[in-house]
Request: fold
Amino acid sequence: MQEFVPLLIGVALGLVAHTRGLRAWSPAVAALAIPLGFLAALVAGELAISWLFGLFDAAQTWAAAAAAIVLASAVTHRRVT
Reply:
């Protein structure tokens, strides 16, 4: 259950970034994914074990955000054409 926290945060970040017109590889998305990933690790209680969990959750958050942006772009592009 704890691994859903960074994924849900990443999907939310991706959907917000998509509405703002940001791309998946945007530095702004990566810059937001890092602290939000550490926040997810803090919420899940993983930072008490090791700070490496924060890096892993940051990577998961960014990957989920990138996937959400790509999927949202595909859906909106499909609706337009």
Notes: The chain has a mean pLDDT of 88. The radius of gyration is 13 Å. Residues 4-75 form one domain.
